[in-house]
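input
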Amino acid sequence: MGRTVNRRKRILDNRRILAVDDEPDVLEALEEELEDYQGLVLDTARDFQSGYDLIRSWTYDVVILDIMGVRGFDLLNAAVQLHFPVVMLTAHALNAESLKRSIELGARAYIPKENLAEINHFLEDVLSLGYEPMWRRVFERLEGVFNASFGPLWQKDQKDFWEQVRSGRYELKPVILKK
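output
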């Protein structure tokens, strides 16, 4: 007699995710991190145009973007306009300015590639938390990494902004494009 396995539904099961990164090994690592989720579809692209075409062609539960090499901020803007939650995943643009720009443009998380092994936890949070609580969670998990990467005084010049983000009180302001 066959045995029925009672699988608990996980938040990443049956989701469609897009990852855009110009480094094939990063895309392969993402595939490995996400391979155990039932029904999860991971679309990948290695350049801006392919990523943009996919963003415009499908509905995604989450979009993961590199910043350098694929015009990540342009792709972030396109994905946010379509109301896709976006996670920025970066190594070369790991700096306070890119973090701030990611937040202001509507990204839901900003993760150093060195933390790629934890991506599933961040993706689960993105899918279950609102914008403000998500950023509070990012800072709970990664503020030590940010401090080590950016230096101990990296928040000094814009203390109010960073305090709002860290506390979960930062509210995304609509971006108005000028003609």
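quick obs: The longest strand covers residues 16-20.
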